[in-house]
């Protein structure tokens, strides 16, 4: 009598509804797969802004490097340059004075992509003192 | 008398699993609120030479500027006047050392960014950064 009772208990324990547990685990797995986002690493390009009341004063000291960004074109000290030439010029200048201030004048019609490219080049060669101003 | 032990073993496991499942969903949803603040419609420009930042100042205010010039903070659309009010209030509360991160779409024309920059400058904030996608290895925030 005792022996048969033990067997019955064992049999009942084994009948745990595993299928619902698997359903839950499956749903969780689907949830995590769907909500997973690729982590995008961002670079933050620090810039100095002009004082609000000095926005129109475009007088620059002669020892400052001036880069102008127009849609599709970049000018260094007034001369049009390709991005590769800009990089070479900046590399040379940063070797002379890494603390040199770079004034980046940006056309209102230039795209952010072009602005970021130039700022990125400056950061890449070690010029971190970047000031930006918009051309009115 | 013989049937009793069999009845005791019928624990309602299914409902217990339901409750556990609901709890897990609750914690998962509440834990990911912070990630939803990022404006996914913005495609950042690529920065090839600048290192990616690992840590961000927790006080940083992130201003999103979409390609059409629409501005939002944490997906809350704002006019420039509202942005000005928020930034002025921030300066009054926490000082002008608060960093500003401008996340602008790569196709936005600078005219739209300039308007935001003017508002930032008027509020007296000067620690401004432009966000870009870094293709270099990570480093500490500058």
Number of domains of chain A: 2
**What average pLDDT do the residues of chain A reach?**
79
Shape of chain A: elongated
Structural class of chain A: alpha/beta
Sequence of secondary-structure elements of chain A? HHEEEEHEHE
Q: What's the CATH class of the largest domain in chain B, please? A: Alpha Beta
Number of strands of chain A: 6
Kindly state the number of beta strands of chain B. 8
Low-confidence runs of chain B: none
What is the SS-derived class of chain B? alpha/beta
Provide a descriptive summary of the structure in words.
The complex is a heterodimer of chains A (136) and B (142). By secondary structure, chain A is of the alpha/beta class. Chain A folds into 2 domains: 2-35; 52-135, 2-Layer Sandwich (Nucleotidyltransferase, domain 5), CATH 3.30.420. Chain A has 4 helices and 6 strands. Chain A has helices at 2-13, 18-35, 83-96, 112-124; strands at 42-47, 65-70, 73-76, 79-81, 102-107, 130-135. In chain A, strands 4-3-2-5-6 form a 5-stranded mixed beta sheet. In chain A, α3 (83-96) runs parallel beside α4. Chain A is elongated and about 85 Å long. Chain A starts with a helix and ends with a strand. Helices cover 37% and strands 20% of the residues of chain B. Chain B has helices at residues 4-8, 13-31, 80-94, 110-123; strands spanning 46-47, 52-53, 61-65, 71-73, 76-78, 100-104, 128-134, 138-139. A 6-stranded mixed beta sheet of chain B has the order 1-7-6-3-4-5. In chain B, a hairpin with a 5-residue loop joins β3 and β4. In chain B, α3 packs parallel to α4. The longest helix of chain B is centred in the N-terminal third of the chain and has 19 residues, at 13-31. The mean pLDDT of chain B is 84. Chains A and B meet through α1, α2, β1 and α4 of A and α2, β1, β2, α4 and β7 of B. β1 (42-47) of chain A pairs antiparallel with β7 (128-134) of chain B.
């Amino acid at each position: 009598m005792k022996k048969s009772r033990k067997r019955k208990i064992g049999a009942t324990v084994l009948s745990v509804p595993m299928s619902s547990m698997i359903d839950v685990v499956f749903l969780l797995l689907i949830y995590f797969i769907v909500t997973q986002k690729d982590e995008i690493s961002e670079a933050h390009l620090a810039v100095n802004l002009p004082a609000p009341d000095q926005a129109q004063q475009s007088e620059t000291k002669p020892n400052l490097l001036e880069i102008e960004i127009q849609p599709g074109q970049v000018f260094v000290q007034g001369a049009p340059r390709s991005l590769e030439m800009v990089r070479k010029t900046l590399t040379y200048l940063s070797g002379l004075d890494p603390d040199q201030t770079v004034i980046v004048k940006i056309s209102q019609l230039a795209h952010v992509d072009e602005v970021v490219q130039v700022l990125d080049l400056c950061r890449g060669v070690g010029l971190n003192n970047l000031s930006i101003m918009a051309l009115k | 008398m013989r049937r009793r032990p069999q009845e005791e073993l019928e624990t309602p496991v299914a409902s217990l699993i339901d409750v556990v499942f609901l709890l897990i969903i609750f914690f998962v949803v509440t834990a990911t609120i912070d990630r939803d603040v990022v404006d996914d419609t913005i495609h950042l420009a690529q920065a090839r030479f600048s290192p990616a930042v690992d840590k961000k100042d927790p006080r940083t205010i992130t201003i999103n500027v979409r390609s059409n010039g629409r501005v939002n903070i944490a997906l809350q659309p704002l006019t420039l006047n509202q942005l000005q009010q928020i930034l002025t209030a921030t300066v009054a509360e926490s000082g002008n050392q608060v960093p500003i991160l401008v996340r602008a779409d790569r196709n936005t024309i600078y005219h739209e960014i300039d308007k935001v920059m003017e508002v930032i400058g008027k509020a007296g904030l000067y620690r401004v950064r432009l966000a870009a996608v870094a293709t270099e290895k990570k480093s500490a925030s500058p």
